[in-house]
Amino acid sequence: MDKKLIFTAVSAALGTSCYFSRSGKILFILLLYFIFLYMTAGFRNMLLQCAAAALFFSSAHIAAIRQKTVFTGRESTFLITFSEMPDFDGSLMKSPIKSRNESLQLFYSIGTEEEKSALQQYMDPGLSCLISGKLEKPEAARNENGFDYKKFLIQKNISWILRAKTLSLDRCRHNTKNPALMISSLRAKGISYISEHFPESSKGFVSALIFGDGKEIGEEDYLAYQRLGIVHLLAISGLHVSFLTGILFYLGIRMGITREKMSIIILILLPAYMILSGGSPSVLRSCLMAMLYFFLSLCRRKQAITASMACVFLFLLLYRPYLLFNIGFQLSFLVSFSIVLSSPILKKYPNHFHQLLIMSIICQLASIPVLLYHFYEVSVLGIFLNVLYVPLYSILFLPFSIIALAFSIFLPRLSEPLIVLLDLSFRFCSWFAERISNIPLSYLTFGKPAYWTMLLLSLSIFILFIQWERTSLSKCRKAIFMLAAVLLVQYHINKISPFGEVTFLDVGQGDSILIQLPYNRGNYLIDTGGRLMFHQEKWKERRKVFDTGSGTIIPLLKSKGIHSLDKLILTHPDTDHIGSADKILTGIGVKQIVLGMGNEQKYREKNFIQTAARKGIPVAEVKRGDRWKAGEAEFFVLNPFRTEEETNESSIVLYAKMGGLTWLFTGDFGVKSEGELLHTFPGLSADILKAGHHGSKTSSSAEFLNGISPMAAVISAGKKNRYGHPHQETLKALSMLHIKVFRTDEQGAVTYRFSGRRGTFSTSLP
Known about the structure:
By secondary structure, the chain is an alpha/beta fold. It contains 29 helices and 26 strands. It folds into five domains: 2-66, no CATH class; 77-176, CATH 2.40.50.960; 192-319 and 381-441, no CATH class; 453-491; 496-532 and 543-763, Metallo-beta-lactamase, Chain A, CATH 3.60.15.
């Protein structure tokens, strides 16, 4: 029965995937799976699994139909109900809401500090308000392998973003609360209490452990935990639920309550705890499994944990098919199934420490495909750190956090030493994790595996587990060799790839261009994008300020398996071109920084210069006449050739030959300098032009365009930017000369992928 349920869970996942992906690759996997079933379980069982796959295919279809919106997008007035406590992040208020029984994502810019204070005091789950605003369709990823907000919202059954123009409390009213809303309100108050009464360095961890809310965890702390493969400790998991239900059950028995009554009490409390702890996929899995266990104990029935887990998986996937694409859902079930199914392996190691270590290895191996697909890297030290951190968080920090919160509420004077001790503990663990994460090779970047690589990777891990269960780890040499070979090839995939790419990244109102040469002969980044930072009042400041370096460029580089940049070329000192340079230097290896001659003083005070000096990264200055070659690609520096007062005119202008085309990268080069360039290089021509200064009218003059005669021009500009780039005058000049135009503000990232002297252009957005 257990095997049938596990096979049914696999069939359900494949059936759901088939509907949403509509890909021949998934159909191929499904075909292999049915052949495997036919050979191992027989024709009848194969038919049963075909029926299961068809059922969940239909379930996904029904979910897609229910996803259809009742809104047209032209509405301007909305009666909304807050389904949970809004998140106040500086001057921005955001929350999922309900309107006409449909879920929407609300964003509202708060005008004053007084308004924010009033909203925080008055807002509550279940509150209904009449507001005005406009609907927007969420966008897909604007860069390859970037965060897809549209898919993220679809997983939450949300089709629209509502940007509120007005939100008056006079037009709001409190509704009668149902039990779920009351628990949600209690959760919001608990999170708010922790935020106000616990230290800055530990309040995020306490909220994450008790209420499943980790938004207050510092960016550096979270990144360190993620790199080391222990970020799962910051989410409520099966260990938390098992510990809490076990303690509660034990205390109830000690107080004289019968086992049957305690089972009923826990069955009543667990749904409340699901809401109280945020209802993440790992929470749903853990709580539903615990409820199933206590329900079966009341019925005096026993069921294997694998069967219980499969039942919960099937129930959740039938109820919410989109959960299959949630990273937390994938990791939670994959790791849990792996631990349970590997119990014969664990029994071979009677020593408790060895069991913990083997369990950590099993979890790490099982999660590799998911981690590489979503995060592109795997922790090397995570196996050992999990042995240390898992018991520390589950046995010590979780109960300690609950006790500290209880004392803080009911015995505030006695709580101070507890909170201080707890804060010191969290700070030490974060400090240690950050130091470990900075050790070379503490984590390895493999890039996003291709389809066949993922297939081989998953198959090799599966074979390793099968062999390990039958024999011992020392006798699994072939399986280990196969897994190591797949990972080794993936790690060095760029060295054997004949393909190169030129990608004009969408970094908003700024420039950033990635050049990736075939066979890993050169990885160059021209500019980093960046945002101008203005001083804001304290109440307006966001918890985490988005940076194009850490938020867009570094994930893209890692997804492509790039371990280091050969050159970081910074065309000129404007913030929209170099503002994220420091984040690039701290996030990935850089072998050389290239600056234009004559700009030394303007760069001297920049943070990245100090970071480069600390890391020992050489800084080179280039001028007209400099050149280099990498494989078949050639690069020539056409500017600067003298010191300019205007930073735009001192931009590095790079002429390149690669992929069968000639390229001209112009930075923010202006009209005046364009004339000088044509005069100095009268025969200059380029197939592809990176239009200067984001397509403004101060660059890309008709004379210059006529002179270089490009086939296509790429304009890097921010969507709906306040400067009005690209200028209509520039677009008209390009149109009159029949030059094809690519625009990052409309099409997202623009990529030219080539092999030898042939290639094709593509855009992230259609």
